[in-house]
Amino acid sequence: MLNLSIQSLSSHLEKKTFSSVELTQFYLERIKQYNPSLNAFISIDEAKSLSMAANADELITKGQKSALTGIPVAQKDIFCSQGWPTTCGSKMLKNFIAPYDAMVIEKFNEVGAVNIGKTNMDEFAMGSSNETSYFGPVKNPWDLDLVPGGSSGGSASAIAARLAPAATGTDTGGSIRQPASLCGFTGLKPTYGLVSRYGMIAFASSLDQAGPMAISAEDCALLMNVMSGHDKRDSTSIQRDKENYASKLNSPIKGLKIGIPREFFGEGLDSSVHNVIDSAIDEYKKLGAEIIEISLPNNHLAIPVYYVIAPAEASSNLSRYDGVRYGYRTKEYDDLMDMYFKTRQEGFGEEVKRRILIGTYVLSAGYYDAYYLKAQKIRRLISEDFTSAFKKCDVIMGPSAPSVAFNAGEKKEDPLAMYMQDIYTISTNLAGLPAMSIPAGFVSNLPVGLQLIGNHFSEAKLLNIAHSFQQNTDWHLESAKGFE
Ligand code: GLN
User: Fold this and answer.
1) Which helix (H) or strand (E) is 291 found in, with range?
2) Nearest by Cα to 439 from 402, 407, 408, 479
3) Contact indicator for 181, 220 with CB cutoff of 8 Å
């Protein structure tokens, strides 16, 4: 049951082996049993989930069913969901009940998917370990002493512990792929603009992108079919014909040109992770792929550039939390200024404040050219590296993260060490490219993710490449002990 694909769950629903209400109850029971030790969910609303499931059962009976009808989906608590608390992992939004649905939520509702709960996350999606959440850290089901990765750590933990068959995440610098790597499942960060950001609480608007998290590439394809699409309420949403991401999963990959960037295998990469990635690439060779060495010469600048651009955008986006319009407001204050200061001082956590300070600094008149403008220029160079690389290869492969999951607390006091977690993921966000992480093996019983990076709009191809691997390996079906 726990490893069933969305497609088989869906056909069971159709054949009425079980109903969506029963399936939802099954997962709600698992959440009740395991969430106290994992802290993967911030809010659960049994009555709401079960009523959505009952509606789905009606649709199924009426023959109005599509692939996701009646399937429970865990939603990252960054997506506004009408009538649900939507906290973004922050004290600032602790009591915020969203008055409307994000486009992603709207799309899942339209097809009759069941919202099984809102998942924990780093505060305002800033973090790589889920330790910055106001609602407490999330545990990695593979080892409860370890972090699940971040910022989509709650969704990651939920998928790895099989508390939901599918989940959503967002990826601004790696927040879908790094947790997918550390928790051993499949995650896709789509091309920038393919999934609407409407109602998705903003962190760094030129980088934020929502995507699917699930056991397999096949499941991610079905989720993408629902999530993607143009939305006029998001000015950066892309107008293009909707694709069926599940239709090309089985295309042959013989002759595929895989680019291996030399910069992804240097200092900083754990040697045992390196070995797992090498074996995964060997598997692709067996499937008929050709390996080409490539270079992404500016990759080492991705982290410094990101930590100028992302905080700059965050400092502007987060200025809306002022205690006036919505969210937290300090209890006692003298005047308006005092209210602003105290509200923001008490409402934001340390990492968020750090980013706001950096962002405000790099945007200030005296430093704008030296930092922000320069970072934008390097962003272009990073993007051009990929343009040149894709002249030589169809897909780029490498590790998703430099190491397996690390101990809780280990990097918490050292922001720079934490930021290095995204050394292989951030450049694709800066370039707006799609990328995935798929389970590729283990290092001492901990999962390792292989990263696949494609050219713009190559999601269907990436899912096809990932699916071929998953047809020939079982890494994605391994599940954490104690949660089987
Ligand atoms: N870890 C990165 C950060 O802290 C990326 C987070 C994300 O992708 N949301 O900003």
Assistant:
1) strand 290-294
2) 479
3) no
User: What topology is assigned to 1-484 in CATH?
Assistant: Amidase signature (AS) enzymes (3.90.1300)
| Residue 175 designated active-site | yes
* Closest-lying ligand 1 atom to the alpha carbon of residue 310: 10
Name the pairing type of β-strands 72-76 and 41-43. Answer: unpaired
pLDDT in tens, 389-429: 999 999 999 999 999 999 999 999 999 999 999 999 999 99
Summarised one tens digit per residue, pLDDT across range 330-369 is: 999 999 999 999 999 999 999 999 999 999 999 999 999 9
Instruction: For residue 350, count CB atoms less than 10 angstroms from its CB and return exposed for 0-12, middle for 13-18, buried for 19 or more.
Output: exposed
Q: How many CA atoms lie within 13 A of 198 on its CB side?
A: 22
Give the residue, by CA position, lying nearest to ligand 1 atom 5. Answer: 173
Candidates 152, 155, 175, 427; catalytic one = 175
Name the token pair of 374: 């320069």
In this prediction, residue 114 has a pLDDT band, given cuts at 50, 70 and 90, of very high
Map out the domains of the chain as residue ranges.
1-484
Rounded CA-CA distance 23/27 in Å is 6
CA of 337 to the centre of ligand 1 (A): 31
Neighbours of 225 (CB within 10 A): 21
- Distance separating alpha carbons of residues 172 and 192, to the nearest angstrom: 10
pLDDT in tens, 259-297: 999 999 999 999 999 999 999 999 999 999 999 999 999
- Cis previous bond, 151, omega within 30: yes
CA distance 404 to 454: 23
